[in-house]
Design goal:
The protein is of the alpha+beta class and 891 residues long. Helices cover 57% and strands 10% of the residues. Helix 29 (644-657) packs antiparallel against helix 30.
């Protein structure tokens, strides 16, 4: 009996085997029909001798990891199993060619095509490496071209085979990997490979796409391995002069012999490739030195005038705010980032010392200490102190230098030279010099805080003295890991930073199980991973709760412990009263803490207690006029209350404080849509974004576009959408499912239906897993409703969207309720249930939300309702004949 007949007999009733498609080193591939799901599939059957060597149980257990990979540029794994003595796995059948087929036909690819394919492979690699899966066999044969886009096949299969039976491969004659694309460490037989080995292979593939041949070849596998390990990379520009120099340098780095000399991640490689055309274009522009384009000649004076008006307005505002605060009894001081005089790699230590001194000083009553977030903006600044003090609204500035050095005998010393400056006369109110062993670092922090407080006339009471003089840990190594974790935490909210922060904090508490502050900060890092949906699992919440409880068990009075427990109640269960109780306990010793005030304002807003939310955010502005969280939260809250003039004013202030934040520009553009009912102002704003504005943060922008990314993406120009198209999952500051939904809308705009469907399918698969893990999470169900709607699965979409609404009534969460109801209305429109959708929109218009009659007129999501009588009547009733300006604010 032939292999085809044996396989047909083994899989009868599940798959109808049609014909053999091809044979490779590991498997024979058959075209089949999936009888249950009515779709064509490819069934790959492992070679019998390989299956016998590996064994079924372990191989199938390992291959489950590959089945979890969900990415538009990764060929998914549908099924796997054992039948009739065969080990097999099932993937979609791609009716297209492989990259090898195209290279065989064309030899060399156009530059833009090669870059696109390489970036899409890198995007897939970044995702897989983030799930601890290394491909090990990146080559043109394993890259399929579907609708013009790259899809990587056999992802995780080599890993499964290696993990299941690496010690038995020799007997089968099988070597994992292909010599022409294998990294030196893989060719030498290194057991432990990481993502940098795949980066090397991708460098080889890109080299071949441009040059027509791989960088290294030879008569035998051993000869090729030797060339990979020893020979320099042949010059690309020798065989193809049109390759930009920057691109050749980028490929050379990917092909470095030593992994440490390559790009650390595939995402870094992709970013350099994305910059290659721009670098070449910039070089050409610098050489030609053309006159500025006429449209910029016309727009520049207008832009400068607008900036001048904003700056002048903010100067008056900041002066008023500073005057209000300075007019009180508290003395205001800023701790500027201490200058690191040691090695560059010790920068985290200087930053950590600055933050710890700030925290201890802030525990002193009678002083108002500017938060670290605002003061850190002046790191390395050469602005005069008087100007910095004016911008921060302070009367005193503490600055200094730090040097950490190792000395003979294996000990370390820390040298700190602080200086307290009175701004009024630019005099040194207090100076000192500390030269201590590293073990005394906590005493140094306490002495600085105590002496600065004394110099400013603040008297420390006994409870304050204990807090200022406290020693958070007995382990200097644990403290070092803690400071490194804080460095990652302060960088931002990208997944990689939060993952690294958790790792550092976990090491810290492992070294000192009594480190209460370490446990509290670890809890917060866990919660951020959950809140931003990088890991929205019950397991992550269990870790957060355990660390918060351990922190308070060790130190029941620790403010950071109560803050952590408060955010646990907030993020995990929307238990706002419990969260506020914890925040109130922390405020006893941190009454002026703006971080706490931001948390309190956010909770009050979700409770629907908008006046109290505004009061908290307004106090943030008063205490710290450089902290953009005050004006952005005020702006968003006024937006929801439809008090557009106040919202506009605050959003201008937020943009002035953080002029590169795409979130702030997108919020202001949304305000224009809601207020004006036209796209003119919003389009001008977004298409005039400063070059430094980071579009990779756009999918994480949670305000109105959580409901409708169509509205924002539709306002971008073609070049901006092209930039957004190049953003990979690893560089985007958002969760996986939201990123996929945004990318699906982007491909919907460009009418690339195959890619749109792939991203929607990927989003649905991610959200389905999350819904199983957290069935009470409204956001997962509402998001799944959007994903199913994009697939045309209307009954399931309605069920999920309705579940999301049921989980967050207005009384539970005013913010989430508005989002969930907006998503349901959108799904109702797509399903053709226009009456119900109109009822939902009327309900939204009767509550605080982003929605207005103006927004309804311009958002393309509501286009199917345009001629519906109920919708027209709603617009006329809620927004006048045109539904534009003049709508009454919500009261």
């Amino acid at each position: 009996m032939s292999l085809l007949e044996q396989l047909h007999a083994a899989l009868t009733g599940r798959y109808a085997i049609e014909r053999e498609l091809g044979r490779g080193g590991m498997a024979v591939v058959f075209l089949a029909h999936d009888l249950k799901h009515h779709r064509p599939v490819a069934i790959k059957v492992l070679r019998p001798e390989l299956a016998l060597a590996l064994g079924a149980e372990r191989f199938l257990r390992e291959i489950e990891i590959a089945a979890r990979l969900t990415h538009p540029h990764i060929l998914p794994l549908f099924d796997s199993g054992e039948a009739g003595g065969f080990l097999y796995y099932v993937t979609p059948y791609v009716d297209g060619e492989s990259l090898r087929d195209r290279l065989s036909r064309e030899k060399q690819l156009p530059l833009d095509d090669a870059l696109q394919v390489a970036r899409e492979i890198a995007d897939a690699l970044s995702y897989a490496h983030g799930h601890d899966v290394v491909h090990r066999d990146i080559k043109p044969e394993n890259v399929l071209l579907e609708a013009g886009h790259a899809v990587v096949s056999d992802f995780g299969i080599a890993r499964a085979i290696t993990a299941a039976g690496a010690d038995k491969l020799t007997a089968t004659g099988l070597a994992i990997g292909t010599p022409a694309y294998m990294s030196p460490e893989q060719g030498s037989g290194a057991g432990q490979l990481d993502g940098r080995s795949d980066v090397y292979a991708l460098g080889c593939v890109l080299y071949e796409m441009l040059a027509g041949d791989p960088p290294f070849s030879g008569p035998t596998a051993q000869a090729i391995h030797a060339r990979h390990s020893v020979d320099p990379v042949p010059s690309l520009r020798t065989v193809r002069r049109t390759v930009p120099e920057h691109m050749e340098q980028t490929i050379r780095k990917a092909l470095a012999k030593v992994p440490a000399d390559r790009f650390a991640t595939a995402d870094q490689f992709a970013q350099e490739l994305a910059a290659a055309p721009a670098a070449a274009a910039n070089l050409e522009r610098r050489s030609a030195r053309p006159a500025p384009p006429r449209h910029w000649q016309r727009r520049l004076p207008v832009a400068l005038a607008a900036v001048a008006v904003l700056a002048a307005g903010y100067a008056v505002y900041a002066g008023r705010r500073s005057g209000e605060a300075a007019g009180g009894s508290m003395r205001r001081v800023a701790v500027l980032p201490f200058e690191n005089l040691g090695r560059p790699e010790d920068e985290y230590f200087a930053d950590g010392m600055t933050e710890e001194i700030t925290t201890r000083l802030a525990s002193t009553s009678g002083l108002n200490v500017i938060a670290r977030r605002s003061a850190s903006e002046y790191k390395g600044s050469r602005k005069p102190l008087r100007e910095i003090a004016r911008e921060l609204g302070v009367q005193y500035v503490l600055q200094g230098t730090i040097r950490w050095e190792a000395v003979a005998g294996g000990t370390s010393r820390v040298h700190v030279s602080p200086e307290l400056i009175r701004i009024a006369d630019n005099s040194a109110l207090w100076t000192s010099r500390f030269d201590r062993v590293l073990a005394d670092v906590f005493d140094v922090q306490a002495e600085i805080a105590t002496q600065v407080a004394g110099a400013l006339g603040a008297t420390l009471l006994q409870p304050q003295s204990r807090r200022v003089a406290g020693r958070p840990t007995t382990s200097l190594e644990a403290y070092e890991y803690y400071l490194r974790g804080k460095q990652y935490l302060n960088r931002g909210r990208a997944a990689a930073d939060l993952h690294a922060a958790v790792d550092m904090f976990e090491r810290a508490v492992a070294l000192d199980p009594q480190f209460a502050l370490g446990y509290a900060t670890l809890c917060y890092a866990h919660l951020l991973q959950f809140w931003f949906r990088y890991d929205p699992s019950e397991a992550r919440l269990a870790k957060a709760r355990a660390t918060a409880e351990r922190s308070l068990e060790l130190d029941p009075e620790l403010p950071e412990g109560h803050v952590a427990m408060g955010y646990y109640q907030y993020f995990a269960y929307l238990d706002y009263e419990s969260a506020l109780r914890e925040f109130a306990l922390a405020q006893r010793s941190r009454p002026q803490d703006v971080d706490l005030l931001v948390g309190i304002g956010s909770v009050r807003r979700r409770q629907g207690r908008f006046p109290e939310a505004l009061q908290a955010f307004d106090k943030v502005e008063q205490l710290d006029p450089r902290d953009y969280r005050g004006p952005i939260n005020l702006g968003e809250t006024y937006f929801m209350l439809r008090q557009y003039a106040e919202a506009d004013r605050e959003l201008d202030r937020a943009i002035l404080l953080n002029p590169t934040s795409i979130r702030f520009y997108a919020t202001k553009a949304s305000l224009y849509l809601a207020r004006d009912g036209t796209t003119d102002g919003a389009r001008r704003l977004l298409q005039g974004l400063p070059p430094a504005a980071d579009l990779s943060a756009l999918p994480g922008f949670w305000f109105p576009p959580l409901v409708s990314p169509h509205a924002i993406l539709g306002l971008l120009d073609d070049a901006q959408r092209a930039r957004f198209r190049q953003i990979s999952l690893d560089s985007a500051i958002t969760d996986t499912a939201t990123f996929y939904l945004w990318k699906a809308v982007l491909f919907e705009f460009s009418r690339e239906r195959q890619m749109e469907r792939a991203y929607r399918d990927s989003a649905a698969r991610v959200l389905e897993r999350q819904a199983r893990d957290r069935p009470a999470d409204w956001g997962v169900h509402s998001g799944l409703g959007l994903a199913y709607a994009g697939q045309g699965r209307w009954a399931q979409a309605l069920h999920e969207a309705e579940t999301g609404v049921a989980l967050v009534p207005w009384s539970k969460d005013a913010l989430a309720a508005a989002f969930a109801l907006g998503i349901l209305a959108q799904v109702e429109v797509g399903a053709g249930r226009y009456d119900r959708a109109t009822d939902h929109l009327e309900e939204l218009l009767s509550h605080p939300s982003w929605l207005s009659a103006g927004w309804l007129r311009v958002d393309p999501v509501w286009d199917p309702l345009r001629h519906h009588p109920g919708f027209q009547e709603l617009l006329e009733r809620k927004g006048g004949a045109r539904g534009l300006r003049g709508a009454e604010p919500w009261r």
